[in-house]
Amino acid sequence: MKSNKKIGIVLSGGGIRGIAHLGVLKALNYYNIFPNRFSGSSAGAIAGSLYCSGYSPDEILEIIIKTNYFKFIRPAISLTGLLKMETAQELYQKYLPENSFEALKIPLTVAATDIKRSKVAYFSEGELIPPIMASSCIPGMFDPIQINKHYYVDGGVLNNLPVEPLDGVCDIIIGVNSNHLPDEHNIKNIKNLIERTVIMSMNYNVYSRKNKCDYFIEPKGLARYGVFDYKKAPEIFQAGYDATITFIEQNESILALAQTK
């Protein structure tokens, strides 16, 4: 039987850890569960945009592995960031040539943070690439992205699980967090301290929205990977896939969302 429910999925930010979202989507698709509306912050917005444009999870993983992302980023001589993200636009244009929310095969909402107005902004129409860049613009590392005279940084600053655009629109909402922290962790140096503190903050605004999700998938231990640990991409992808297979086996009610082709 085909499910007629409107299935929304929310993908968190998390840098390279966001590749786990692709593994999650592959596992859901394996069970014929195909979300028909997406919302995402940062890495979740990137993964969501590529999937919604028609790429399969495996194809997106291949794109990430074969692309040297940092060659598209150059130093920024400014007081607001160390790197300029605009130079990544060439990369996005290659894989998202239509550069339009309306051209996507599946509706997508992208969350970003309006840095001057101190509020979350949701993008779901018009140009696609600038909001994606804004949503993944880590403050202090990248220059803010300007869109229509406003300046934006990473969506995860204020909303790392943007469930609000799907609330009341979808019958079922699946939330995915790619930043699980172990309950205890030995802090060995200042780098560990900063990383754990930042992830704790990100997870706080994820967990405050968890109860809005009908299903919440969180692959364990992903916080051990660095934000830019690209060599671990296949491993992170597999972690997302394995965690979702286990989740489905333990929550069989989600199989009611399966669709027959």
Automatic annotation (TrEMBL):
<feature type="active site" description="Nucleophile">
    <location>
        <position position="42"/>
    </location>
</feature>
<keyword id="KW-0442">Lipid degradation</keyword>
<dbReference type="GO" id="GO:0016787">
    <property type="term" value="F:hydrolase activity"/>
</dbReference>
<feature type="active site" description="Proton acceptor">
    <location>
        <position position="154"/>
    </location>
</feature>
<dbReference type="GO" id="GO:0016042">
    <property type="term" value="P:lipid catabolic process"/>
</dbReference>
<keyword id="KW-0378">Hydrolase</keyword>
<feature type="domain" description="PNPLA">
    <location>
        <begin position="9"/>
        <end position="167"/>
    </location>
</feature>
<dbReference type="InterPro" id="IPR002641">
    <property type="entry name" value="PNPLA_dom"/>
</dbReference>
<protein>
    <recommendedName>
        <fullName>PNPLA domain-containing protein</fullName>
    </recommendedName>
</protein>
<dbReference type="InterPro" id="IPR016035">
    <property type="entry name" value="Acyl_Trfase/lysoPLipase"/>
</dbReference>
<keyword id="KW-0443">Lipid metabolism</keyword>
<feature type="short sequence motif" description="DGA/G">
    <location>
        <begin position="154"/>
        <end position="156"/>
    </location>
</feature>
<dbReference type="Pfam" id="PF01734">
    <property type="entry name" value="Patatin"/>
</dbReference>
<feature type="short sequence motif" description="GXGXXG">
    <location>
        <begin position="13"/>
        <end position="18"/>
    </location>
</feature>
<dbReference type="InterPro" id="IPR050301">
    <property type="entry name" value="NTE"/>
</dbReference>
<feature type="short sequence motif" description="GXSXG">
    <location>
        <begin position="40"/>
        <end position="44"/>
    </location>
</feature>
